[in-house]
UniProtKB/TrEMBL annotation:
Every FAS1 domain range: 25-152
Keywords: Signal
Family statement: Belongs to the fasciclin-like AGP family.
Protein name from the UniProt record: FAS1 domain-containing protein
Domain of life the protein comes from: Eukaryota
Spans through the membrane: none
Matching SUPFAM superfamilies: FAS1 domain
Signal peptide: 1-25
PANTHER family: FASCICLIN-LIKE ARABINOGALACTAN PROTEIN 20 (PTHR33985:SF17), OS02G0491300 PROTEIN-RELATED (PTHR33985)
Annotated InterPro entries: FAS1_dom_sf (IPR036378), FAS1_domain (IPR000782), Fasciclin-like_AGP (IPR052806)
One Pfam family cited in the UniProt record for this chain: Fasciclin
């Protein structure tokens, strides 16, 4: 329960942060320096090179997954789309990443592509797209968090999800003629939340569920 509350609060804060000013140049400069000092020289140079680009100047918060120097040596300089795949607009500190369930989706700046949580219950660390991230952030300041990864993420990564038999009234499909509810607004939130959850977007599904809960509570208290 505590992890869900934390996740909901993180999403609400992210929504509020999206209305704030872009990342400061001082924060980016500090990140460039710490990346270099931590042995992520290639990513440090890359971040410095794009520090004036719209990739950063239009961002109010970021979580960056920085590939190691050996990854750059093996793969070469990444394309812009591959680089965007390592940048998430969702601010995700360590506690938030730990609270995400397996197969949860994390949005990235590469349009139409999300990272997939592949952490199993027995894992000590956290993995995305079957690639482990550093146990603690390399950089965590304000609205910028950076984790290290040993390899570049593969945009074509897919995880197999077992197909389950559909169950009634769980929001995983469109309502039947027999579906009824006392609150049409609650029903709408539930349908959208269920569809998001069944599509793998459990983070936003959790957000809608929490929002619906607080909204319904306000109605009951006022009545």
């Amino acid at each position: 329960m505590a992890s869900r509350v934390h996740l909901l609060l993180s999403l609400i804060l992210f929504s509020l942060f999206s209305l704030s000013s872009p990342l400061s140049s001082e924060t980016i400069f500090d990140a460039v320096k710490i990346l270099a000092d931590s042995g992520y020289v290639s990513m440090s140079l890359t971040l410095e090179a794009i520090s004036k680009s719209t990739l950063l100047t239009n961002s109010t918060s970021l979580t960056i997954f920085a590939p190691s120097d050996p990854a750059f040596i093996h793969s070469g300089q990444p394309s812009l789309s591959l680089l965007q795949y390592h940048f998430s607009p969702l601010l995700s500190p360590l506690q938030t990443l730990r609270s995400l369930p397996n197969a949860a989706k994390i949005p990235t700046l590469f349009v139409g592509h999300s990272l997939t949580v592949t952490t199993s219950p027995t894992d000590d660390g956290i993995s995305l797209n079957n690639i482990k991230i550093t146990r603690s952030p390399i950089f965590n300041q304000g609205f910028l968090v950076i984790f290290g990864v040993d390899e570049f993420f593969h945009p074509d990564f897919e995880v197999s999800v077992p197909v389950k038999s559909p169950e009634p009234n769980l929001g995983c499909g469109f309502p039947t003629a027999n579906d009824t509810t006392s609150f049409s607004g609650t029903s709408s939130f539930g349908k959208v939340s269920g569809l998001l959850g069944c599509s793998g977007y459990s983070v936003m599904s959790e957000f809608l569920n929490g929002f619906c809960f607080f909204w319904l509570s306000d109605i009951l208290m006022a009545s």
